[in-house]
Design goal:
- It is built from nine helices and 15 strands.
- Strand 4 and strand 5 form a beta hairpin.
- Helix 2 runs antiparallel to helix 3.
- The longest helix has 17 residues.
Length: about 375
Amino acid sequence: MSKDYYNILGVSKSSNDGEIKKAYRKLAMKYHPDKNPGDKQAETKFKEATTAYEVLKDPQKKAAYDQYGHDAFERNGGNSASGFGGMGGGAGGGFSNFDDIFSDFSDLFGGGRKSKRRAEVEGSDIRYNIAIDIFEAFNGVEKNIKFKVASSCEKCHGTGSKSGKAAQTCGTCGGAGKVRVQQGLFIVERTCHTCHGTGQIITDPCDQCHGQGRYEKNKNLSVKIPAGINDGNRIRISGEGEAGARGGRDGDLYVFVSIRDHEFFIRENNDIHIEIPIKMTTAALGGSVEIPTIENSKAKLTIPAGSQTNHKLRLKNKGMVIMNSGGRRGDMFVKLFVETPIKLNDEQQELIEKLDQSIAENSNPQLQKFFNKFKKFFNG
């Protein structure tokens, strides 16, 4: 026996249209297959509610149902009211008004009917990669770049129309840019095949841009790269991306900056690191050496007596310019590498041997510390 439509929706025969619709929308939200994937029981209840609502929302069908019950919609019912055959066939079948039933669900699952789309097409943002050296990053530099991008058509002034005539509303989708197709239980929105989603049609397309309002061409631009820029930073240039079509907003250009590796200088944030070799005698006695700096000049570095390989010395304010800081800079760190002399003559070797014999054990604390640990290790 078929279930009573009023009981399915949870309303009475005296309920008005608003109450019936409200009850149906509540059930539709609860049991819709999109919200209950794979739940056959929910799917069945959704179908029952939809079939009941299709009858009770229509005054004529409701009156027939109140008088004859389910017999009013049997295909071969002898006493059935004519003109309502096939209503009991299942959910989704027999929707009397395609747009009306879609609007019933739009608030639940789509946030309301979409407004008609405009013919304007916004230009996309584009990316350009550029590599600079560390000195250009330190000083800042201006670079000329060349790239291809969709640009506004000069012939039709970006309208897409040969005569400059305004676009017409698409007759297929009525300007919505999308058409709706019923597939069994569901109603599916698809991009309009006539206007390709713009909602409007150019009736006399420009022969240069073919109605698009833009076409791809070469573009030259000068880009200012600020001093202190970091590897991976990007520079946004407003309105220099893809041109918008038919009045749409232009996109932006994003220039991504990479900094090439340098033979001597290594950058870490705003500091500069460099490794330099020093003579064994300078390391032992102390002294000073000249080293290159990021300003492409030289600086005097004082080496303290007794310096060792991997010791680091700091030169304040000799690092990278800090971007947008008013000229403040990071520091420069110098890592020492003590070089042992080679190709000694007999006299030099003799002098070093005498020096070695004269050096006390406590003059090489790291060496003494290592061999003490070594002895403990083998002695248990």
